[in-house]
Amino acid sequence: MNTANQYLKAIYLVQEQEDGPASTGDVADMLEVSPASANEMIGKLEDQDLLEHEKYKGVDLTDEGIHRAREALQNYCIIERFLLEVLEVEEFRGEAKQLEGVIDETVAERLDTIIDREPQCPDCFDAEDDVCGLIELEAEASD
Amino acid sequence: MSLQRPVGSDHQLARLLQIGVVLEEVVEARADKHASVSADLDPAVETLLDHAASESEEHRRALEELIGELEAETVPFDEIQTLVEAQYESDDEFDGVLYDQLCNEETAYKFYDDLIGAIEASETEFSIDRNRLLSTLERIRDEEADGVEEVTELMEGRE
What we know:
CATH class of the largest domain in chain A: Mainly Alpha
Number of helices of chain A: 7
Number of helices of chain B: 5
CATH architecture of chain B: Up-down Bundle
CATH topology of chain B: Ferritin
Number of domains of chain B: 1
Strand content of chain B: under 5%
Helix content of chain B: over 70%
Structural class of chain B: mainly alpha
Low-confidence stretches of chain A: none
Mean pLDDT of chain B: 86
Strand order of the largest sheet of chain A: 1-2
Structural class of chain A: mainly alpha
Number of domains of chain A: 2
Strand content of chain A: 5-15%
Distance between the termini of chain B: 45 Å
Helix content of chain A: 55-70%
Number of strands of chain A: 4
Mean pLDDT of chain A: 87
Low-confidence stretches of chain B: none
Radius of gyration of chain A: 15 Å
Radius of gyration of chain B: 17 Å
CATH architecture of the largest domain in chain A: Orthogonal Bundle
Largest sheet of chain A: 2 strands, antiparallel
Shape of chain B: globular
Shape of chain A: elongated
CATH class of chain B: Mainly Alpha
Oligomer: heterodimer
Number of strands of chain B: 0
CATH superfamily of chain B: Ferritin, core subunit, four-helix bundle
Distance between the termini of chain A: 33 Å
């Protein structure tokens, strides 16, 4: 997943949590980058019409921005589920976060052909914990 | 959540190589499956699928050697074959088979290209020789690029 998509995903999640525009500070915190870096990327994404940025108010994703962010969330869910189901990785969440920057959307799509993913994905995403919310529910159900 | 970062440990490298093995296994299993379920395949497509399956097997072996040196385990082919079989939807349309093959080759190319970039950006000293690691991955990536070209030519030839 490229850096732009990771920003879109972070903004989407902050907007979900806030139920409104995302502040650049919150986006920077979520991505663990400096506010200056976040501002620079937000400017680039605005130039591509993926978001609207209003000073002192925050950032709002456009429809195209939302579409890209949801794809990025779905890719993350695929990586988590692939690590758990196919490679049987115990620390699948920690590793998914490490790997998401290196696994491109096209690769995630191929990995998706051998996993069982729920149709409600990516609405399954738990914004607060930054993880796929369904996997934990499934694990609890099988206990 | 973290922004794109280079490969930082033997463990992470081994995990990415395992993903490479799985991608190759998916290609191999899907090519075998296409060939077995599609009736009256064009001989040129049959040859392409056959070549794709054997090339993927060779790539997988090369990756497995690297994984072994990192003291990690590979992912058995029969496990992936079972998963591919479970999700496989028969598509004996000529274009469907070729399009799937094109996606396979393009995906593999993109994966190796990103992995090479991430290794080059990393200052980690892996327990396997960096030059050998990179030259193996570059060779595989270049063969995937050739594969994209072969499928594209075949598709264009049919138009």
